[in-house]
Automatic annotation (TrEMBL):
GO terms for cellular component: mitochondrion. It comes from Branchiostoma floridae. This is Probable arginine--tRNA ligase, mitochondrial. It catalyses: tRNA(Arg) + L-arginine + ATP = L-arginyl-tRNA(Arg) + AMP + diphosphate. Belongs to the class-I aminoacyl-tRNA synthetase family. It is an enzyme of class 6 (ligase). One of its GO terms (biological process) is arginyl-tRNA aminoacylation. The gene is LOC118423141. PROSITE patterns: AA_TRNA_LIGASE_I (PS00178).
Amino acid sequence: MACHFRRAIAGLISKAARIHEEKIVPLIQVSNPKTSSEGEFLLPIKPLIDIGVLPPDSVESGTAQDTIANLTNRISCQHPVLKAVSNKYGIQFSVDQALLIKSVLSKEQEDREQYGRRSDLFGVRKGEKVVVEYSSPNIAKPFHAGHLRSTIMGNFIAKLHHALGNKVVRINYLGDWGVQFGLLAVGFQLFGSEEALQTNPIQHLFEVYVKVNQAAEEDEDIHRQAREFFRLLEHRDPTALALWTRFRDLSIEEYSRIYKRLGVQFDEYSGESMYSYRSQQVISQLREAGLLQITERGTGVVDLSEDNSMSFYSTVTRSDGTSLYITRDIAAAVDRYERFKFDRMYYVVDKSQEDHFRQLFKTLEKMGYTWADRCHHIKFGRVQGMKTRRGEVVLLEDILNEAQRQMLDNMQQAATTKHMDNPEEVAETVGITAVLAQDFRGKILSDYKFDWNRALQSKGDTGVFLQYTHARLCSLERESGMLVPDSCDPALLQEQQALQLLQQIAGFDQAVHKAWTELEPRHILSYNLQLSHLVAAAHKSLKVKGSPKDVAEARLLLFHAARVTLANGMDLLCMTPVDRM
């Protein structure tokens, strides 16, 4: 990677601008491979404003260029930094190219699967404790497409933090409590089938739930029976608990099968049910602290406004004194801090719940929990257009099946498809990669329209293109007839395509760093796609077979470094690289 060079450049700037070196290191970027003719590294204008080298209005006033030029003139270059040039982008630095080639390739060989994760950009990391709550479907209901983004986004955040040395706890907080389970229990007595429950439990329970809701519209007694069942459940009636436990266990078993296909694992399955009793303690705590107010309707509220005007408040109890979803969320947050002493806790839930989490975090703060500011809502937009060819809105498993089926069709029709023993498995892996890449393309807060045809194309910026590139690089290594060398003569990698590819490999850590600071997978995806395009260009002109042995080995080492980097980037995005396709 580029750490040695960033630090050398930071040292020069530190002397010229009298700013601590550690502040400068994370600001220095590896230049874009296609626009790096003036230097391999860039210190952009905006970070210079952020650290006080440039005044905030310097760009608008037109003084930025003169200030940057003066700073550049004060820089005394020393090896390995050869030249500093100011331009409209910032300060561009040229370094010893041969040393850069050696450093990047040797660092990749040394770090292997850790390449991109060990970098000065991340500073000295003590290893934080991070809790990530994600996916969180309602039990006894189908796992629909709406859960996809929470599941894969939460998995990405957990994976990234784990890769960077943090201790991560992955929690699936199930919607497994409430009056709706009373309705489901009554519905199962009326419409349930043991045989159907064993065959397809989630689908059958959902059908029962739909039927009982329809019946309840015409028969108020069904609602009365449902409330009575839930009352028994809250009082831990053995018969009611046994039925609820059965529905919950069957749901988790079904969800686990789908999670396995996505490569998703959890450290803990919890749910609202765990906090039904503790939520009453929360209510007592709020009452004793003088925070609980009773409205004219009898509901319990907490005033969260700064001026005690009730302009911002949370409702924490029903009129009968029972808890609500937010009350159980408060209890869950307190329990998690007691157990894990987390440095950060992320709730990966769509943007429609923004007000809920504002209320949750502010209520925790009002209750005196100093760690409330460690809780963060990772909000995301919604997916549109996830339908089968028949035009029906589908369940998540239908999406995975459709991705596999369409990918298998494409592979069977493609002339370049290699022979493989497990085409269905490869189609599944590549199809899931296509779904992930389509989702990770834009800002997570944005809604987006899912497009099957675009997602499954082998050309263009798709997950299929990433898999094709990785498989192609694996094939190149297999068919080269050589072992990948540990090092090479940098003079043998002077072609433009080689230098651009190496420049891209050098900048992997900054893509990981940006994804980590913003919790946006698009930065790593964009990096992987650009890397794949550069691999395609280099593959055409930098032949391994038929070249002199020393040239062939140097190129093989470069392509190997590209493959390892691509695989590492895909792994951080929770994609499984294939070696044949």
